[in-house]
Structure formats: C-alpha cells, structure tokens
Write a structure and sequence with these properties.
By secondary structure, the protein is of the alpha+beta class. The chain has two domains: 2-44; 47-151, Immunoglobulin-like, CATH 2.60.40. 25% of the residues lie in helices and 37% in strands. Strand 7 and strand 8 (141-151) form a beta hairpin. The radius of gyration is 30 Å and the shape is rod-shaped. The termini are far apart.
Length: 153
C-alpha cells in the first residue's frame, strides 16, 4: 500500500516538472523564431546602424559627404592658415580628379569634389580620401589623407 502511494505521488511530481519544462521550452522557441524573423528581414542588420563619418587631419575640415552607387562627393574647408592649390583628389574605388583650383584660407570648396566610383551592390562606403595640395606661398606640395565611412544612398 505504501509503495502504491509513493509511485502515485512520484508520477504527479514528474508530470508537473515535465509541464513546467515544456511551457518554458515553447516560450524560448517562440522568442528564437521572432529573433530569426527579425534577422531574416534585415531589422537587426548592423549596416543600418553604421555611423556616418568623414574626417581629415587638422587643417582640412570635412564639412559634408555623400556616397551613391556611382559617386562619392566630399566638401572641405581650408583651415591651414594659408591659401592652397588643390592638385588632386583621390579616393579608394574611385577615379581621381585632377587640379581643382585655388582654395583660400578659411574658404569652403566652391563645388563639392565629386569622384566617379564603382561601389557596386555594396551598402556602405569605407575608404581613404587623399587631397594633394600645394602651399601657394612656398610652392611645397603636401598630401592630406582622410577617411570617409557612410551608407550608400
């Protein structure tokens, strides 16, 4: 009689434990399916949270930038303390621009430097931009290397 009572109580405890585990198992499965669906449809894509940045070493300030599937546009300001002649503008994955004229001290580029690029089906542009310039007073040539990281619009 005592043995029957122990078996009966044991099976009820096992059933309760099994129901408890199954309930939590289904809940975890639903959460995993929801996260999988969000990842599949691109809601959790890290490219959507890519910070946009454009910077050059001191003296050349990047004011604005934009990348498309075929172009990279960069607007800069001369803060070097002297007038310069922009000899070339180059960027990774882009065709270089030749001489761009004079940029006075404190002046912003009269037109944005727009380079023709092959960004393809990429969703972001991340590359170095080199501006080669000559100091008008001393005729010494310098290269300023900056970096642009942005989403392709």
């Amino acid at each position: 009689m005592a043995l029957k009572m122990i078996k009966k109580l044991g099976s009820k405890k096992s059933q309760a434990a099994l129901e408890f585990i199954m309930t939590y198992g289904w809940a975890i499965l639903v959460v995993l399916v929801a996260i999988g669906a969000l990842a599949y449809f691109g809601v959790l894509s890290p490219d959507k949270f890519l910070p946009s940045k454009c910077f050059f070493p001191s003296g050349i300030a990047c004011l604005d930038h934009k990348a498309t599937a075929t172009t990279l546009a960069v607007s800069v300001r001369n803060s070097l303390g002297y007038d310069i002649t922009v000899d070339a503008v180059k960027a990774q994955q882009c065709t270089a621009l030749g001489s761009q004229g004079t940029l006075s001290n404190g002046a912003t580029t009269p037109t944005t430097y727009t380079l023709t690029c092959v960004n393809g089906a990429s969703t972001k542009y991340n590359g170095n931009v080199n501006i080669t310039y000559t100091n008008i007073d001393t005729q010494v040539q310098h290269t300023s290397q900056g970096q642009v990281t942005t989403r392709i619009e």
